[in-house]
Design a protein that fits this description.
Length: about 325
């Protein structure tokens, strides 16, 4: 489309140049010859004066046409270039960049409401495409993390090594800022004791700040109490979570999710993850992490049942 417009603009410009040259030739050559012929052949002075007046009017008209042609010949192509060709080229270049994988490319158009509306719609489409790509990349990354965790759940037969490996995968592959697995305490406050932690003060569970397990704002306590996942989309966006903000700033996380680990209607513990970005736990992420927590609960329960069975069948000395 832009090639056709460029071709039409060039043709129009060449036609105006031709017309301009023709008018200049008419002003410079024929008028001068006519004026000389009139001076040589017209006898009456009155006739010569009247003829000269008419000739001046014709000459003025021709020069006015020359000026108008110059203006039209340069202004119209310039207007077409600014208002039509440049916006189209900008959109075309942005499409080319998008096809090369640059989904951050945006159209910058500041001429004509129609082109601005087109550019805005195109930019909105690019933004939706980028969001969808980010969502798919995040889900693929999450699936890789879940797959690695499930491999450990199938292979590992020791409970302590199991939870240590799971929380390490969640930080190393899942790229969460922090992850810890805690055992539920049988008390009225529904507290939890961290048993495996990574990404926080060298992974020492004893160094966990009280704000992370405090029953008033801790998502871990809420997950145990409600037997359902508890999510904080933005620690800094709600005054209720003010006690968590100092720790969040210190360790670089913004959103939190806590998932209960339950088996046979009994809460065994809680899996808590901390993400750098706000709103990090969407619907698909929550579903996959809930399935992981259920699989973890099943594995822990199976390991414990196996241990009890071995102890029961152990020969008495």
């Amino acid at each position: 489309m832009n090639k056709s417009l460029r071709f039409q603009t060039v043709i129009m410009f060449l036609l105006h140049v031709f017309l301009l040259l023709l008018l200049l030739w008419a002003a410079a050559v024929p008028l001068e010859q006519i004026q000389q012929y009139a001076a040589d052949n017209m006898g009456e002075i009155g006739d010569r004066v009247a003829f000269q007046g008419n000739l001046v009017q014709v000459e003025t008209l021709i020069w006015s046409a020359i000026v108008f042609t110059v203006m039209i010949g340069f202004v119209i192509p310039w207007m077409i270039s600014c208002w039509i060709l440049n916006p189209i080229l900008s959109i075309q270049n942005t499409i080319r960049q998008a096809n090369l994988g640059d989904l951050d490319a945006r159209v910058q158009v500041h001429s004509g409401k129609e082109f601005e509306a087109l550019a805005n719609e195109f930019n909105r489409m690019m933004e939706l495409r980028k969001l969808e790509q980010d969502r798919l990349l995040g889900l693929n990354h999450m699936l890789s993390t879940i797959s690695a965790c499930r491999h450990v759940l199938i292979q590992e037969t020791d409970e302590k090594r199991l939870i240590l490996k799971i929380r390490q995968i969640l930080v190393d592959i899942g790229a969460y800022r922090m992850a810890w697995i805690g055992y539920a305490e049988d008390d009225a406050h529904k507290t939890s004791t961290p048993a495996a932690l990574v990404g926080y003060q060298n992974g020492n569970p004893n160094a966990v700040s009280a704000s992370l397990t405090d029953t008033t704002c801790s998502p871990a306590a809420r997950a145990i109490r409600n037997r359902h996942s508890a999510i904080i989309s933005d620690v800094f966006g709600d005054p209720l979570f003010a006690p968590l903000q100092a720790e969040a700033t210190r360790h670089g996380y913004t959103s939190i999710i806590a998932l209960p680990i339950s088996a046979n209607q009994q809460i065994l513990g809680v899996l808590t993850l901390y993400a750098e970005k706000p709103d990090a736990f969407g619907t698909e992420e929550v579903r996959l992490l809930t399935e992981l927590a259920d699989d973890l609960a099943y594995s822990i329960n199976a390991i414990r049942c196996t241990g009890k069975s071995k102890a029961h069948h152990q020969p008495q000395s």
